[in-house]
C-alpha cells in the first residue's frame, strides 16, 4: 500500500509543498520518523523533532513557520494537523483491512438469521437464531452473537466479542476484542437467612450508531428495559457499565472507568482513567471527571470539572490540596 503526497493533500484538502510523487506506506511519530512514513506536528512543544525527523512527508498546520530547513521531501499544510493525521490513519486502515468470507467452521442459523451484502464473517463465529447483521460489516473469528441480536451496517466486531441475546448494536460501531455486551446486571435480593436471591435480568443492551467500545469492556443488560449507550460514545478498554445505565451522546471515558447501576450520564461528558460514578444518580451534560476521581452524588450544573474522592470542583480541590501539602511540610 503506497499513498502519494499529492493523493494525501487532495484527500485532506491541504496545500502541498514539495515533491507530489513521494509516497508513504505508514505513519511514524515525529520523534522517530523514517523514510516512507508520514509524520505530523500538532503540539508546539514537539517542534524541535521536526528538524531532525527522517519521515518522507510532514503534516503541519497552515500557520506553522519553520525556524530551520525541513528534511521531508513534501510538506502538507492543513487547518488541523491532529484531525488530518486521524484521517490518514483511516486511509491506511482502509487499505490494510482484510476481508475474508465465512469459511471453515462457522455456526449460522440460515433460515432465521440474515446477513447483509458485503458483510464478512470470520471462522469459528457463532450466529444464533433471528440474528440480523447489516451490510458491509466485518465480523472477525470467534465472535458470539446470541439469539435475536441485531447489528447495523458497517460495524466492525473484533475477535472474541460476546453479544448476549436480544442486544442491539447500531451502524458504524467498533467493538474491540473480548468486549461483552448483555451479561447479567449485578442484581441480588438479600434474604432473611443472609443469603441472596438472584433477580432475573430481563432487559437488553442498546448501542446506538458510531459507538466504539474498547477491549475487555463490559456493558450489562438491564433488569427491565435497556441499558443504553447513545450515539458517538467512545469507551476505552477495561470499563464497566452496569445495568440500567444510560450514557448520553458523544461522552468519552478512559480505561477502568466504572459506572454503577441506574445512573444517567449526560451528553459530551469526559471521564478520566480509573474514575467512578455511584449508582442511581444523574450527571449533567458536559461534566469532566478527572482521573482516579469519583462522583458520589447528583451533578446538576453542566460543564463542571470535578476532581477527588468524593469529587468536588477541581479548583477547590487544588486549593485544598495546596493547603494540606503546605501544612504537612510545616510539620
Describe this protein's structure.
- The chain is an alpha/beta fold.
- It folds into 2 domains: 94 residues, Udp-n-acetylmuramoylalanyl-d-glutamate--2,6- Diaminopimelate Ligase, Chain: A, domain 1; 156 residues, UDP N-Acetylglucosamine Acyltransferase, domain 1.
- Helix content is 14%, strand content 30%.
- The chain is built from 4 helices and 39 strands.
- The strands form 6 sheets. Strands 10-13-16-19-24-27-30-33-36-38-39 form an 11-stranded mixed β-sheet.
- A hairpin with a 4-residue loop joins strand 38 and strand 39.
- The protein is flat.
- The N and C termini lie far apart (64 Å).
- About 2% of the residues have low confidence.
Short description:
The chain is an alpha/beta fold and 331 residues long. The chain folds into 2 domains: 3-96, MurE/MurF, N-terminal domain (Udp-n-acetylmuramoylalanyl-d-glutamate--2,6- Diaminopimelate Ligase, Chain: A, domain 1), CATH 3.40.1390.10; 161-316, Hexapeptide repeat proteins (UDP N-Acetylglucosamine Acyltransferase, domain 1), CATH 2.160.10.10.
Considering the chains and any ligands shown, give keywords for the structure.
331 residues, alpha/beta, Udp-n-acetylmuramoylalanyl-d-glutamate--2,6- Diaminopimelate Ligase, Chain: A, domain 1, 2 domains, ten-stranded parallel sheet, 4 helices, 14% helix
Amino acid at each position: 500500500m503506497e499513498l502519494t503526497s499529492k493523493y494525501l493533500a487532495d484527500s485532506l484538502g491541504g496545500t502541498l509543498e514539495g515533491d507530489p510523487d513521494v509516497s508513504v506506506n505508514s505513519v511514524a511519530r515525529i520523534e522517530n520518523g523514517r523514510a516512507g512514513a508520514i509524520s505530523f506536528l500538532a503540539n508546539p512543544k514537539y517542534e524541535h523533532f521536526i528538524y531532525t525527523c527522517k519521515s518522507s512527508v510532514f503534516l503541519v498546520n497552515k500557520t506553522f513557520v519553520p525556524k530551520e530547513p525541513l528534511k521531508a521531501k513534501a510538506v502538507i499544510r492543513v487547518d488541523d494537523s491532529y484531525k488530518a493525521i486521524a484521517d490518514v490513519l483511516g486511509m491506511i486502515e482502509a487499505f490494510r483491512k482484510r476481508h475474508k468470507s465465512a469459511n471453515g467452521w462457522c455456526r449460522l442459523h440460515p433460515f432465521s438469521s440474515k446477513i447483509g451484502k458485503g458483510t464478512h464473517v470470520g471462522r469459528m463465529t457463532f450466529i444464533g437464531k433471528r440474528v440480523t447483521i447489516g451490510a458491509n460489516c466485518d465480523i472477525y473469528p470467534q465472535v458470539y452473537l446470541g439469539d435475536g441480536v441485531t447489528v447495523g451496517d458497517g460495524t466492525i466486531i473484533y475477535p472474541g466479542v460476546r453479544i448476549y441475546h436480544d442486544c442491539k448494536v447500531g451502524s458504524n460501531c467498533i467493538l474491540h476484542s473480548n468486549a461483552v455486551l448483555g451479561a447479567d446486571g449485578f442484581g441480588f435480593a438479600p434474604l432473611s437467612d443472609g443469603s441472596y436471591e438472584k433477580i432475573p435480568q430481563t432487559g437488553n443492551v442498546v448501542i446506538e450508531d458510531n459507538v466504539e467500545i474498547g477491549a475487555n469492556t463490559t456493558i450489562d443488560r438491564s433488569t427491565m428495559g435497556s441499558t443504553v449507550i447513545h450515539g458517538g460514545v467512545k469507551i476505552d478498554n477495561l470499563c464497566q457499565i452496569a445495568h440500567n445505565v444510560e450514557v448520553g451522546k458523544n461522552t468519552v471515558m478512559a480505561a477502568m472507568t466504572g459506572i454503577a447501576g441506574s445512573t444517567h450520564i449526560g451528553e459530551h461528558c469526559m471521564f478520566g482513567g480509573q474514575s467512578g460514578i455511584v449508582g442511581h444518580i444523574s450527571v449533567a451534560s458536559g461534566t469532566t471527571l478527572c482521573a482516579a476521581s469519583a462522583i458520589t452524588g447528583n451533578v446538576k450544573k453542566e460543564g463542571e470539572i470535578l476532581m477527588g474522592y468524593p469529587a468536588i470542583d477541581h479548583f477547590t480541590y487544588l486549593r485544598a490540596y495546596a493547603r494540606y501539602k503546605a501544612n504537612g511540610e510545616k510539620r
